[in-house]
């Protein structure tokens, strides 16, 4: 890699790739968990390791796309899991890169589903057809339909102002003093993160249980 950039330098790396899906823990097969970990987590790590020599040489920057969903989950625990893992990877990397002059930034968007199209609307029939017989014995189609409606409503509430996230990425790459974390979210989303970070887990569980019941 060094031979390709020796004359121009290498300044920034943005790890943006990600996939999302919805489903309670037992609804998703192990293959899905492996795929999500491979794309959302290991994909970013692979890219980072490949370009690390250049980033150290040119004192560049690394930007990771996380999400406020790293702090809590509302039916998409598999996505939340990968984003929480990315956060911890970045925390370690940021400290380790300080001595090389490399800065590591995390972007934490709120709900921008309508901007990114990362998650298509859910079909309750499709979810039901993919459940194992064990899960079908525990749940029923009505419950699956309720969960699908709930999540589709969240998707429909997503912001269309994706430029806000892009602006944060640009600032992370170009600012003389970039932030370690850029939370780009609505006030109520930031409030939810605040509750999650500072209140006992039992309080957050009550808040999320109430939200899931609506």
Automatic annotation (TrEMBL):
Residue ranges of the TM segments: 62-79, 191-212
Keywords of the record: Membrane, Transmembrane, Transmembrane helix
Taxonomic superkingdom: Eukaryota
Alphabetized SUPFAM superfamilies for the sequence: NAD(P)-binding Rossmann-fold domains
InterPro entries, sorted: NAD(P)-bd_dom_sf, SDR_fam
Gene3D superfamilies with a match to the protein in the record: NAD(P)-binding Rossmann-like Domain
Family: Belongs to the short-chain dehydrogenases/reductases (SDR) family.
Protein name: BDH protein
Source organism per UniProt: Malurus elegans (Red-winged fairywren)
Record gene name: Bdh1_1
């Amino acid at each position: 890699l060094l031979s390709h950039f020796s004359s121009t330098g290498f300044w920034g790396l943005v790890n943006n790739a990600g996939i999302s899906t919805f489903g309670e823990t037992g609804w998703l097969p192990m293959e899905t968990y492996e795929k999500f970990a491979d794309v959302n987590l290991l994909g970013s790590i692979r890219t980072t390791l490949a370009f690390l020599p250049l980033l150290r040489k040119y004192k560049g920057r690394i930007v990771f796309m996380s999400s406020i969903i790293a702090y809590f989950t509302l039916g998409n625990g598999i996505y939340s899991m990968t984003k929480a893992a990315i956060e911890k990877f970045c925390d370690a990397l940021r400290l380790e890169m300080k001595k090389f002059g490399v800065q590591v930034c995390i972007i934490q968007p709120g709900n921008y589903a309508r901007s990114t199209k990362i998650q298509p609307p859910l079909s309750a029939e499709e979810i039901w057809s993919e459940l194992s017989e064990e899960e079908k014995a525990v749940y029923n189609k009505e419950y699956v339909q309720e969960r699908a409606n709930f999540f589709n409503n969240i998707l429909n509430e997503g912001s269309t102002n994706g430029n806000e996230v892009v602006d944060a990425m640009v600032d992370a790459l170009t600012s003389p003093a970039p932030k370690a974390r850029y939370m780009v979210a609505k006030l109520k989303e930031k409030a939810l993160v605040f509750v999650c970070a500072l209140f006992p887990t039992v309080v957050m569980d009550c808040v999320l249980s109430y939200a899931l019941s609506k």
